[in-house]
Structures
1.
Amino acid sequence: MATKKKPKPKSFKPFIKAFWILFFGGVLLLALVFLLASWGVFGDMPTFERLENPQTNLATEIISSDGKTLGKFFLEDNRTDVPYSELPQNLVQALIATEDARFYDHSGVDARGTIRAVLFLGSRGGASTISQQLARQLFVGVRSKNVAEAVVQKVKEWVIATRLERNYTKEEIISMYLNIYDFGYNADGIRSAAKIYFGKEPKDLLTEESALLVGMLKNSSLYNPIRREELTLERRNTVLAQMEKYEYITEAERDSLVGLKMDINFNPENHREGLATYFRMYLQGWLKDWVSKNPKPAREGERDTWNIYLDGLKVYTTIDSRMQANAENAVQEHMKRLQAEFFVQNTPDRNPTTPFLDLSSDEIKGIMTRAMKSSPRWRTMSREGKSEDEIRDSFNKRTEMTVFDWNSPGMEKDTVMTPLDSIRYYKTFLRSAMMSMEPQTGHVKAWVGGINYRHFQYDAVIQGARQAGSTFKPFIYAAAIDQLRRSPCDTLPDTQYCIEANKYGNPEPWCPKNSDGKYSGQSYTLKRALANSVNTVTAQLIDEVGPRPVVSIVKNLGLTSEIPEVPSIALGTPDFNVYEMVGAYGAFANQGVYVKPVMVTRIEDKNGTVLYEYTPETKDVLSQDVAYAMVDLLKGVTEGGSGTRLRHTFAKENRVYKEIMTGYPYELTNPIAGKTGTTQNQSDGWFIGMVPNLVTGVWVGGEERATHFKTIYYGQGASMALPIWGLYMKQNYENPDLEVSLADFERPEELSIRVDCNKPVEEEEENQELEDDLEGLDF
C-alpha cells in the first residue's frame, strides 16, 4: 500500500522577507519624509539664521533708577525674556515632571513617548517633548484640524525639534519655552506671568506657584486662576503629584502643598494703569522720536528699524519708583480733599456743580462747543460721514457710561448722562501736575501729569503751560542781584509804584497792586518782600534792571515760552509748564549751573548692547554767590512767608485749615527754599520747593481758567499746591534709603553778597574776615 507523502512544511521566508521589506521600506519612507520636510517640500522651514535668532515679539521694558519695572510697551505680546539662571529650580522641575520626564535623555524626539502615544492613541500621555512644543510655538503654529495637515505639522515639529537640540543647550530650550508661552491677561512669557498673577519676579516663585503656572501650560484659557479657580487648583495639584512621582519633592511636601489655597496677587499690566502712567506716555513719544533718528543695524531676518513694541528694548530711566509712588500718593490724597471743598463752594443750592465762574452764557457755549469738536466722539462720527446736526444730537442723548469719581471704588462709577453733560462734569475737576528733579544731575525722580490717567490723559507736566504767578518773581530778583549787585538785605518801600507809559513799550502806565489791594508804607528787605510776594517791590526791581536782562536769564534757565520784554512779566503773566519751571529753579540749588532735566540714561537692545547713553546738557547761568543769595531769599518764604505752614501742625480752627489741611502735620524743620504762586482769579496755584538735592514743582488748577475757587483762601498756591509738596516730602523723609537731604544748602567759601540781614554790615564783614584769617592758620 502506497504511503501518502507528508506535505512540506510551509516556508516563512516570504513573510520574513516581506516584513523586512516593509520595515526597511517604512524606515526609508520615514527618512524620506523627514528629508523632504527638512528640504521644505511640505512648507517653509526655518533657516539656520532663524533658528539662531528666532523672531519673537518682545515688549520694551521701562526700568526705574532703583531697578524696578515701571511698565512696558507692547502691542499683543507683553514679553520680557528671562535667562535660565533666573528661573527657580522648582519651576524647572515642575515643567520637566509634567511635560517631559525624559527631557535630558532624548535629542528632541522621545521614541518611547511616541510609541506609547501611537499604541494607546494618546490616552496615556502625549508624545510632544518640550523641544517639539517649542518648535510648534516658534515656527509651526496651531495644530490643524485636517488630519493630513496635522501629520505634516507633526513631522515638521520633529525636524525642527532635533535642529533646536543641536543649536541650543537643554537649559536654553527650557528658558525659551517658558519665555514664549502665553499665560493670558497679557502675561506673555514666565516673567510677565509671575508679575501679573503673583506680583513677583520668577526667581521668587514658591513651589506651589510654579506648579500653578506649569499647569497652565496645558491650556491657559481652560486653567485660568481668575475665572476657573477650582479647575486650576486641581490642575496645580496634578503637577505637584508629578513632582512627587519623579522625586523632586517628598510625599510629605506634596501633601502640605496640595492643602494650600491659591494665593493670587493679580496685577494686570496695561498702558493705562500702574505706576508712572503719565511719564510712560511721555516716554513713548520720546522713544518714537529717538527711533526715527537712530536706524537699526541691518540683520538677515530682522526688521530694519527699531520697534518699541516688538524689539524688547530696555529703557533705563531716572525715575525712582519709591519717590514716584510717594508723589502719586501725595497728589491723590490732597486733590481728593481739595475737590470736595471745591464742590461745596461751587455748587449752588439744588443745582449741579458749575465748572465756570465769571463767564457769560456765550463764553460758556463757546467752551462747550470747542470741547465737543475736539472729542473722540466728534472725530469718529465725522469720519463716518455724519452731518454736524447728527453729531450734535448725539451729544444730547442719555447713555450709560463709566466716569471718574474720587469716592467710588477704583475711583470710577457707572452712571447715565448725556455726552455733553459728561464734558461739563469732567470740567468741574481740578487737575494737578508735579515733577521732582535732582538739580546736580538733572535726573527726574518723579513725574505726575494729572489726577488719573485713565480718565484725564492730558499731561500737565509738559503739555500744559499756565501763568506762573509769583513763582516767576525769583527771576526778577536774580536779575537784580546779578546785574545790579543787589542784596537780599537791601530795602525798598511798599508803596504804590508806577512805571511810566512807553518806558518799555508800555502804551499806558503800569501800576501793579498788592494781592490784598493795600500798601503798608513800610520798607521791606528783598528777602521779606519775596517771602510775602509784595508786588510793589517786584515792580521797582524790574524797573531798575529792565525786562530784557530778566528775559535773557530766563531763557538761559530753560524757559522756552515766548516772553514779551514788558514790565508786567514781573507778576508771572507768561505761561510755563512744570517741567521748565523745575529745571529753572534747579539752577538756584545747583550753584548757578542749569542742568537740563533728563529722563532716560541708557537704552539697550534685547542682548544688552548699549544703543544710547545720555550726555548731560549744562550751562553756567549765575555765579555761585548769586545762586546762593537766591536760595537764601527763597528760604525766607518757608521761614516767615507764604510757605511757613510747612512748619506747622495745623491745629488752627480757621475753616481753610480744618477742611483742607486737617491731617497734614508736616512739621518739617530742615532748611527749605521755595516759592508759592497764585494767578489772577485763583485760576492757578503753584509751589516750587527745594532742598539741596531735590527740586519739586507742583501746579493745581482747572482745565479751563474759568474753573477756580471763589476766594483766595482756598485758591492760593499755599492751599492748592503746597500741601502736595509737603505730603510728598514727608513720605520721602520716612524712607532714609532715598537719601533726600536734611542739611542746609552749601554756602560759597567767600560770599560777596550780604545775606545775613539780622547782623550789621560791619559785623558780617568782620566775621567773614575772621573766617578768612582762621582758614590760613594751621592748628
2.
Amino acid sequence: MKNLKKHLIYKALLLSGLVVVPTISFAQASNDNEESAGKEVERIAVTGSRIKRADMETASPVSIITSADISMSGISNVENLLQEMSFSAGVAGNATNAYWTSGGYGTAQVNLRGLGIKRTLVLFNGRRVVAGGTGANSSVDLNMIPTSMIERIEVLKDGASAIYGADAVAGVVNIITKKEFEGAELDIKAGITDENDGESQDLSLTMGGNFDRGNAVLSLNYSNTEAVRQSDRIDCAKFGTEDGKFQCFGSGTTEGGRALLADGSQVQFNQNTDTSIHGNSFGPYNNEQHGFEWIPYLNAVSPMERINISSFVNYEVNNSINLFTEAMYTKRKGEQIVTPRNGFAGITVDSDFMYNPTGQDLEFQSRRNTELGAPYFFQETDTVRVVLGLSGEFENEWSWEVAYNYGRNTGTDGWTFDIDPEKAQHTLDEDYCTYDNSNGVPCGDWFGVNELSQEVIDYVKYRREGTGGNEMRSWTANLSGELFSLPAGEVGFAAGIEKRWEEGWRNPDSTVLANGDEDPISGSLDVSEAYIEFSIPVLESLTADGAIRYSDYSFTDAKTTHKIGLTWRVNEEFMIRGVQSTAFRAPVITELFGGTNGENLRTIDPCENATGTIATNCLAAGIPADFIQDGTTILTSVGGNPELEAETADTITLGMVWQASFIDGLSATIDYFDIQIDESITSVNGSDMLKLCYEDPVGNSQFCNSFTRHPITKQVNQLNQRPVNAAIEKVSGIDFNVEYRFALFDLNAKTILDVTKLLDHESTPFSGQPTIDKVGYITEDQGSYTEWRGNLTFAVMSDNWQASYSLRYIGGADDVNGGDFDPLGKSVDALTYSDISASYLITDNLKLSAGIDNLFDEKAPYLTSWNDANTDVMTYDLLGRRGFVRVNYRF
C-alpha cells in the first residue's frame, strides 16, 4: 500500500512540472508611478525603522519573503525557510539535529551571519516573542509559528539595537501575519521522501470577515512530521583511512561493560547475546571488536506534532482610535529515540564481589545497558501569546500606539526511562545489596550482556522528567509623524518607551537533582527603555536617518546605542546607502543564573594522532604516543555566570541599489557588512580548549586548568565550560542580489539571484590568545562557514498557473579537524541542491500545487568532524529527494 502511495504521489509530482524555493524579493521604490497618477501613497513602517514612510528602500538592507514564495516552496517550517537562505550560517536548531538543540530541546531558530541564535532578534508583527523550549531558554522557537498564517517575513540584515533594543546584533527577523482576511481558506499538504519515509502532513483552516467597525481572523493549524532514522540513510559511523577507504567504528560505551582493572589493564566483558553462554568471560578491550553501533538509535529527522490556534481582531472604537488584539496558542510534541543509557562511568567494584569475574578491584569505564532497551526522549511545550493594544491618529496625522504584550511558554521533557547511577552503585556493593533481594536492593550481575535479573532492572530504572518555562511581559508606547518641513521634504520622527519583564526557570527531575547531574535554574530581569528616531531630507536626493536608544537593565549597567544612516539617490538608477550603528546583547537568564549541569558534548582530543608541538606537549603531560580517545563525547560542565555584563557591537553596512533604466524590470543590490563584538559572551568549546592548551601550555594555562584526565587511562573525564565576557568577534562579508522580471512567450517571468560571500568570521577567545578564523571551514559542532552561499530562482507565471526551478548553492569548505590521518573527510566540494514546483488554478477557488525538493538526490558529504550522521546535519540534506502535493480551496 505504501509503495502504491509513493508511486501515485510521485507520478502526480512529475506530471505537475517545475518548481520554487523561497524567493527573496528586495523592496523596490514603487511609489513614483502612483504619485504621478495622483493616488494617495500609503505610508508603512519597514523593519528597522519606526518611522512610517512611502519608500520601502531604506539605508538598511531588508529582504522580504512573501506568502506566495512560502506556498510555492512547500516548506512547512519557518526555520527551514530561513536556514536555507544565503545570509544564514553556523548552527541553529532544526529537525535534523539528532535529538538535542542548543537553546531548548526540539526547538528551531535562525542564525543570521553565523553569529549565534542569541544575536538574532525575532519579532512577531514588530513585537518581541517569548523564548521557546522546555525551560529557561534563550531564543524564540520558530516551530511555534505555522507558515499558513504568514503574510511575509522581513529580514533586516543590519544591527538594530537603537530601534528594537538588545539582541539585534546580527539582524532582525520580523514575521508579519495575515491580520485582515475575508472568507475561508482550507489548505492541505502532504509530503514523502524518495525512500518512502519521512511523511509529513499539514492542515490549516483560516476564516475571517469584516463587520461593521472592524475585521476578525481565526486560524487553525495542524502539522505532523514523521521520524527518519539515521540508519535509514547511512550504514555506520565511519572514518576515512590513509589508503582511501572507509572504516566503521563504534562507541567506547560498550554493551556488556568495559572496566579498568587494578593492574592498569582495560577489559571488556562478554558481549555474546546467546543466553546459553554465561557472561563470566572477559578480555582486553578493543574498539574495533567491541565498539557499540549507535547510529540506529539516532534520528535523521526528528518527529514533531504541532497544533496552533491564532486570532486577530481590529475594532474601530471611533474615527481616531482602533483597538487590536493578537492571540496565539501553540502546543508542540516531539519524541526522539535515544541511545541505550550508560550511567556507569566511575562506579567501583571490589575484587570479592560475587559476580566480578576478574579477581581484581575494578572501575567501570562505561556500560551500554541494552538490556533495558532504548528510551525515547520526549518534549511537550505549550506557548501562549496575547497582545492587546490601541492605535490611532491625531488631527495632525501623527500616529500613536500603546500595547501590552504577554507571552508564557511551559514545557516538560525527559526520557521514558533512565538509570539511577546511585542505585546502580548500590547493586554492586555488598554493604547495600543482597543476592537474594531480601532487603529490596538486589546485587547485580553487570559483567556481560544479558546477565541482569529483572529485579535489578526494575530497581535502577526510573522515568526521567523535568519541567520549565519562560515568561515575558511588556508595555510599549510609540509615536510617529512629521515634525516640520524642509526645502527637500518632511522631517520624519518617531519616539517610544518600553518596560519589559522576563523570567525563566528549569526544574530538573528529582533523581537527577539528587545525584547532582543537573542544577535548577531560576532567574528574572527587567528593563526600561526609551528611543527617538529621525529621518531628515538634507537634499532632494540625500536623506539622513538617526536613532538613539537608552536601555536600563536590572542586572547590568545602562546602555546607550545609536544608529546613523544615509541614502543618496545619485540619479533615477542608482542609490548609495550606508549605516553605522552600535548594538548590544544582554546575557540571557541561562547565562546568568544557570547552575552547573553535565552534558556529553562532541569533543576531539588533540593528543590522538598528534604531531609537532602538540605531540611534544601531550607526551610531556604523560599522555602516551599511541593514545586513542575513548569515544567522541566528553562530560562537560556547563552553567551560568552571574558576573556577566552585556556585550557590545559596532556595525557598518555600505551598499548600492541599482534600478536599470535601459532594461525594464532589472534591479540589483550589493551590500558590505562589518560587525565587531567586544566583551563577547563566550564559552570556548571543548575541542578548542584542549587544542589551545597543548599548543602552548604556559601561555594558554587557563585552558589547561579547565579539564581533568583520568590518572591511569589519561582520558579526559571532565571539562568545565562557563561563559565569560572575554572574546572579540568579527564578521564581514558581501551580499549581492539581482532580480529580473520580464516577458517570456506571453508569460510573466522572473529570475532572482541572491549570493553571500563571507570575508571574515574571526573570534579571539581571550585577549592575547590566538584568533580562530572560521571562514572556509565546517566545524564539529557550530555548523558551516563556507565562503560562498547562494540561491537562484527562475519562475514563469500565467493567469492560472506558475512554475519555478530553484538552486541552492553551498560552497566548498575544509573540515576544521581534517588532516592527513583522514584524507577522505578533510574537505568537501561545493554542492548544489535543485528544487522544482508548480501550481495550477483549477477554478477561481481551487488551486493544486506540487513539487520535488533535492531533485537529483544529492547525498550529504562525509566529514571528519561529523555531527551524528558522518556529516554536518546543520548544513546538508540528510533526507534526499522528496516531494509534496498541496490543495488550497477558498470559499
3.
Amino acid sequence: MKTKITLSLLTAFALTSIAITPLHAKSKLPYQDASLSAEQRVNDLISRMTVAEKAGQMSQFVGLKHIAEAEKQLTAEQLNNSDAHGFYPGLNNDDLKQMIVDGEIGSFLHVVDAEEANALQKLAMQSRLGIPLIVGIDAIHGNALVNGATVYPSPISAASSFNTDLVRKASVETAKEMRANGAHWTFTPNIDIVRDPRWGRVGETFGEDTYLVTEMGVATIEGFQQGDFTGTEKVIANAKHFVGGGDSINGLNIAPLDVSERTLRQDYFPPFKAAVDAGVFTFMAAHNEVNGQPSHGSKFLLNDVLREEWKFPGFVVSDWLDVDRLHTLHRVAENHNDAVKLSVDAGMDMNMHGPQFSKAILQLVKEGRLTEQRLDASVKPILMAKFRLGLFDQPLVDETLAEKLNFHPEHQKTALTMARQSIVLLKNEEKILPLNHKQKIFITGPNANAHTTLGDWSLPQPEDNVITVVEGLQKLNSSGSVKYLDIGNQVKQISDEDIAKATEQAKDADISVVVVGENPLRFDNAGKTSGENVARAELDLYGKQLDLIKAIHSVGKPVVVVLINGRPISEPWLSENVEAIVEAWEPGSFGGQAVAEVLYGEVNPSAKMPISVPYSEGHIQSVYNHKPSTYFKRYVDLPTKNLYEFGFGLSYSSFEYSDLSIDKSTISGQEQAVVSINVTNNSDVAGDEIVQLYINDEFSEVTRAVKELRGFERVSLKPSETKQVSFVVNQEMLAYYNLDMQWVTEAGGFNILVGSSSRDADLQSIRLQVK
C-alpha cells in the first residue's frame, strides 16, 4: 500500500511548523563573507559540517510536486522499475521538509517552477549552516520540462546543422530560462557515441561520430557555463553518460557494453576528455556496465581516468537508482550498504533519488568502511558549485522573471533558426521540391498536426507556442490550396478506414505530403515509440504508416514524406519509390514552420546527417568510420550498403568542389599543412554548404577506420559564387593508439579527403606525408 502525501501549495511549503535557529542567524562567519574567494569559503564551511550534513550534501531528492504526481501514477511495487517518476514510501511531506531543515538534502531534481524552488530554498535557509540547495533538471534541448519554455530542436537535430555557434547560443538562452525558473544545473550534454540506432536515446545525442559529438558537446558546455559559471544567468553542465550507453549489446538502455580499452580511448573517451578541458563541472555515470564492471562502481572510469588522468575538478552524480542497482541488478554488491560503499569508493559524489543513501553513508563511516576525508572530497566540489553560482548570497529567484524570459522573442528566433538549419533533404527526385503556391497540396499523417516535433524530454507546451507542420503549411499558403486530413496523432493507431480516406483525397491533389515517423512524447506513455527506455527491435515505420504512404503513392501523384523522429528510420521502399524525403528529426517549438519553409523553398535545406541510416536493423553496426575488412564480404539476401551515409544531405543549390590543394606535401614535428578547396554554387539559388574534412591512414600498426572526420565548415554561397575553404592539418589530427596503447602519429602517408559527405563519391583526396 502506498503512503499518501498531501501536497497542496498551502501545506507543502508551510514554514511555521518548524522551529529551529540557524547557526548563521547568530553570527557572520567566514563562509558567509562574499569578499572571500569561493575556495576560502568552502574550506571554512566544510570544517564546520557534521558527517550527517556532509552525507546530506551528497543526497539528491525529487521535488515535492513531482512526488505528488508520481504517487498518482505508481504503486510502491512499480517504483523500482520507473526511471522517470519517483516518491518515497514511508516519508510524508513533513518528513521531507524536516530533512531539508536538518541539512539532510543537498539537491533536488524535477523542480519545474520558481515558486517551488524558492519554497525549498527557504527551508534550506533554516538549516543549521544555511547551505542552499542546488536544483537540477533535464534541460536537454531547452528547459522543455517547464510549461511555456522555449523548446529547441533536439540534440540529434542540432548535430545535423553542424553549427556549433548556434548550439552555443541556444545553451546560453536555455541557461537564462533555467535560472529564471529556479534551476541551476542541467543534465546535458549527452555525449554518448551512438553505435546502435535501435537505442531509444539517439535523439538526445549528437550522433555516431566522435569528432562531431566532441565539437557539439563542447559548444553546449561553453554555452551553459560560460567559463566558471559564476553569476545568475549561467548554469552547470553535465557530461553524460560515462561511458558507452549508445553501444549496448542489444540496443536496450542499461544493457552491457563490452569493448577493448583501445576502442574506449579512441572512440568513446574523447568527447568526455574534451568536456573536462572545456571546464564541465559535473559528470554522470552510465547505467550500463563496461567490460563486466558497472560504471557506477568503476574506479577505473570515475577515479583512474576521470580524476587521476584527466584532473577533473568537479563532482560525479549517479543516474537514477543506479547506485542501488549495483546490488539489485548487476549483483556486484550483496546489499545496499555495500553498493554505496563500492560506488563512493569508485568516485561517486552525489546520489540521484533515494532516501537510503545518506543512512548508508553514516553507517559506513561509523563502521570505518568510509572515511570522512572521502566525504570531504565529494562535498567540496558540490559546495564550490553552490558558491560560484551565487546561491549562498542569493538563493532565491525573482518569481516574475520566468514570465519575462520563458519563450523570449530572442530565444524563439534562435529555435527557429536552428530548426531551419537542422532539416535534411534526403531525396528530391526530378526536383519536385520546392512546392509552388499554385499546386493543390494534400497533407496527412499522424505527425502532421501533432506536438511530436517537441521531441523527448519535453512536457506539454501551450498550443500557441507550438507550430505543427499543417499549421506551417497553411500559414505559408493561405489560398486554401492546402487540404488536411486528420487521421489522429498516434503512429500506432492508423486504421484501414483512415488509409482509404487518405487515398481518395489524394486523388484531387497535385502532390501529397505525408508526415510520419515516431512519437517521442514522454507524457504520452501509451503512444510513445522512441526516447528514453524506448528501444526498438526494428527500424521501420511503426504500425500502418508505410501502408498509408503506399496507398497514397498508388494514386500516381508525387509524394513527399516528412519524417519526425528521434532515431534513424530504415524503410528502403521509401528511398526507392517516393519522390522526396525530408528528415526533420525533432525540430522543436517552430518545427512545423521550418518544415513548411523548406517544402516551399523559403529556406534552402543545408543540414547533413549526423548518423548513418542502415538498410535494415540486420545491417547494424552501420557507421561510416568502419574498419577496412567490414564489407570485404557481402550479404546474400539484401544489398550491402546503408540507405544514407553520415554527412549526406541535399540542397536546392548545386555545389561543385574543385582545385583541392595542400601547401606542403610533407610535415614533421610541429609543422602543419593547410588544405584548401574551392566550392562553387552552380545554381540560381543561394545556399549553405557544409564542407567536411576526413583523414585516412594508408598503413598503420593497428587497423584504423577507412575515414575519420577531422573538420567541417559551413559556408554560404550566392548564385554562381565561389569561395575557398581551408583546413589546418597537424600531426595531432592524425594520431591514434598504437599496439603499445601510446598516442602517436606514425610516419607514413595519409589521404586528406574533402567534400560534401562521407561517401567516397562525394570526396576528393590529396596525399600528405608525415616524417
